[in-house]
Amino acid sequence: MNHRIQADEERNIATRVEAEAAERDQLTRCGFSTEEIVDLLWLRRWYQSGGSNRIPLVRHWEFLKRLVRSGRLDV
């Protein structure tokens, strides 16, 4: 593998890890549990990587459903 390409990929991975750590901290401050944070981050990665071909609106509905079930949002 080209060393420049490998260095770029490593930098991208490091950036993603840092961003995800910052998001975890923010979600923790908002009162989400570790399990909820893991689930939310997994769902986002799954959708962003093409894990679902459903319409984008469904993503928002599932997130809202999770907030309602956890008691963080009243209907």
Give a nutshell description of this structure.
This protein has 75 residues and is an all-alpha fold.
Rounded to an integer in angstroms, the radius of gyration calculated over CA atoms is 16 Å
Mean pLDDT, to the nearest integer, reads 81
Question: Structural class, judged by helices and strands?
Answer: mainly alpha
User: What percent of the residues sit in helical stretches (DSSP H or I)?
Assistant: over 70%
Distance between the termini: 53 Å
Assembly form of the protein: single chain
Helix and strand pattern: HHH
Number of strands: 0
Largest sheet: none
| Inertia-based shape | flat
| Strand fraction | under 5%
Question: Which stretches are low in confidence, meaning pLDDT under 50 for 5 or more residues running?
Answer: none
Question: What's the helix count?
Answer: 3
